[in-house]
Write a structure and sequence with these properties.
With 219 residues, the chain is of the alpha/beta class. It contains six helices and eight strands; from the N terminus they run αβαβαβββαβαβαβ.
Length: 219
């Protein structure tokens, strides 16, 4: 992905509201390349059936789903990633203020050398485990760094978002279903609080179902 793509993606993220996910925009889901139940092709087919406009497969420490779909696009004239628009995605485990958290990388160049420590289907170690290093690597790959589901960690979300802003995160995964309801809906109280907190630091707000099962409409 280029700097131009990154600018386009930021504009899309700026348009996100609590109603955007899961039917229009979904920037958090998993395939069988990590701990999901759907193959990359099955996710693509569901995205079409659901009329999703923009989505990203954010497997843990893997970009193999994106690579597979890219190869299918090259080999099949009727197979297009332009609509629904598939963005590169990944979920990386790292340390933020001494707390293990997950960072979503979106819209990056999946061939970038800067992401090589994070795409080998295993957690990073040493300096590469630090959130500052992860964010810097995503940025050098022309991507956007997002603090995933900030109310799921040992530290309060306001402390983590404060630290994320100091490390130049671009966004927070604000709209998230913490109750794991069967019909996906962002948790009202906590998500509204996270939205206010993110805004106070001028951080963008993303959304995603964090799907691991057989439907992109739920976790």
């Amino acid at each position: 992905m280029s700097n131009i793509d990154s600018i386009k993606l930021k504009k899309i993220i700026k348009s996100i509201t609590k109603e955007s996910c899961p039917n229009s925009i979904n920037f958090h889901m998993h395939s069988t390349y990590s701990d999901g139940s759907l193959t990359a092709k099955e996710i693509y087919n569901q995205a079409i059936d659901l009329n999703i406009d923009h989505y990203a497969i954010t497997d843990h420490h893997s970009v193999d789903a994106y690579i597979e779909l890219s190869k299918l696009e090259d080999a099949t004239l009727n197979f297009k990633l332009s609509f629904p628009k598939l963005w590169t995605g990944i979920e990386i485990t790292c340390l933020l203020k001494g707390c293990l958290v997950h960072v979503l990388g979106l819209g990056f160049d999946h061939k970038s050398k800067y992401l090589s420590p994070y795409i080998e289907n295993k957690s990073a170690i040493g300096n590469e485990l630090l959130a500052s290093t992860v964010v810097d690597s995503i940025h050098k790959a022309n991507g956007i760094a997002v603090l995933a589901h900030p109310a799921r960690y040992k530290l309060p979300f306001d402390i983590l978002i404060d630290e994320a802003s100091k490390l130049n995160f671009d966004a927070v995964e604000t709209w998230y279903n913490y109750e794991r309801a069967n019909n996906w809906i962002p948790s009202k109280f906590v998500c509204d609080k996270i939205f206010d907190c993110a805004n106070s630091y001028s951080l963008l707000s993303t959304c995603g179902t964090d799907s691991h099962g057989l439907s992109l409409l739920r976790r």
